[in-house]
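Sequence only, no structure available. Ideas?
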Amino acid sequence: MLAYYPPKLDIAKAIRMYPDLELVDDDEQTRLEDIEYRRKRGKGPPKKQKKGLLVLFLFLMHAIAHLWPDETRRATGKKRAKK
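Reply:
I predicted one. C-alpha coordinates follow.
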Protein backbone atom coordinates (compact mmCIF):
# COMPACT_ATOMS: atom_id res chain seq x y z
CA MET A 1 0.00 0.00 0.00
CA LEU A 2 2.83 2.42 0.82
CA ALA A 3 4.46 1.79 -2.55
CA TYR A 4 1.33 3.19 -4.22
CA TYR A 5 2.02 6.76 -3.05
CA PRO A 6 5.05 8.53 -4.53
CA PRO A 7 7.58 9.96 -2.07
CA LYS A 8 6.89 13.56 -1.05
CA LEU A 9 9.29 16.17 -2.30
CA ASP A 10 10.59 18.19 0.61
CA ILE A 11 12.84 21.15 -0.13
CA ALA A 12 14.62 20.97 3.22
CA LYS A 13 15.34 17.27 2.68
CA ALA A 14 16.62 17.93 -0.85
CA ILE A 15 18.93 20.69 0.44
CA ARG A 16 20.38 18.29 3.05
CA MET A 17 20.82 15.53 0.47
CA TYR A 18 22.63 17.75 -2.06
CA PRO A 19 24.65 20.38 -0.14
CA ASP A 20 27.00 20.89 -3.08
CA LEU A 21 24.18 22.49 -5.12
CA GLU A 22 23.97 25.34 -2.56
CA LEU A 23 20.17 25.49 -2.68
CA VAL A 24 18.37 27.97 -0.44
CA ASP A 25 15.02 27.43 1.29
CA ASP A 26 13.35 30.85 1.14
CA ASP A 27 10.76 30.00 3.79
CA GLU A 28 13.46 28.90 6.24
CA GLN A 29 15.56 32.01 5.52
CA THR A 30 12.53 34.23 6.14
CA ARG A 31 11.75 32.38 9.37
CA LEU A 32 15.33 32.79 10.64
CA GLU A 33 15.34 36.50 9.77
CA ASP A 34 12.02 36.99 11.60
CA ILE A 35 13.38 35.22 14.68
CA GLU A 36 16.52 37.37 14.65
CA TYR A 37 14.43 40.54 14.30
CA ARG A 38 12.17 39.53 17.21
CA ARG A 39 15.15 38.69 19.43
CA LYS A 40 16.69 42.10 18.77
CA ARG A 41 13.43 43.69 19.92
CA GLY A 42 13.29 41.42 22.98
CA LYS A 43 10.18 39.59 21.75
CA GLY A 44 11.74 36.15 21.19
CA PRO A 45 11.16 33.08 23.30
CA PRO A 46 12.86 33.07 26.71
CA LYS A 47 16.15 31.24 27.05
CA LYS A 48 16.10 27.80 28.57
CA GLN A 49 16.75 27.70 32.29
CA LYS A 50 19.93 26.04 33.40
CA LYS A 51 19.14 22.94 35.44
CA GLY A 52 22.15 23.44 37.70
CA LEU A 53 20.96 26.89 38.73
CA LEU A 54 17.52 25.55 39.56
CA VAL A 55 18.99 22.86 41.80
CA LEU A 56 21.24 25.43 43.49
CA PHE A 57 18.28 27.76 44.03
CA LEU A 58 16.17 25.02 45.60
CA PHE A 59 19.06 23.97 47.84
CA LEU A 60 19.58 27.54 49.05
CA MET A 61 15.86 28.01 49.70
CA HIS A 62 15.84 24.80 51.73
CA ALA A 63 18.93 25.93 53.70
CA ILE A 64 17.45 29.38 54.40
CA ALA A 65 14.17 27.87 55.57
CA HIS A 66 16.02 25.97 58.28
CA LEU A 67 17.70 29.15 59.56
CA TRP A 68 14.41 30.71 60.65
CA PRO A 69 13.25 29.87 64.15
CA ASP A 70 10.23 27.62 64.52
CA GLU A 71 8.74 29.86 67.21
CA THR A 72 7.37 32.49 64.87
CA ARG A 73 3.96 33.97 65.54
CA ARG A 74 2.55 32.32 62.45
CA ALA A 75 3.84 28.87 63.41
CA THR A 76 2.62 29.11 67.00
CA GLY A 77 -0.68 30.81 66.18
CA LYS A 78 -0.01 33.61 68.67
CA LYS A 79 -1.21 37.12 67.96
CA ARG A 80 0.71 40.34 68.42
CA ALA A 81 0.43 41.87 71.88
CA LYS A 82 -1.82 44.94 72.03
CA LYS A 83 -0.30 48.19 73.23
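The first helix runs from residue 11 to 17.
Hope that gets you unstuck.
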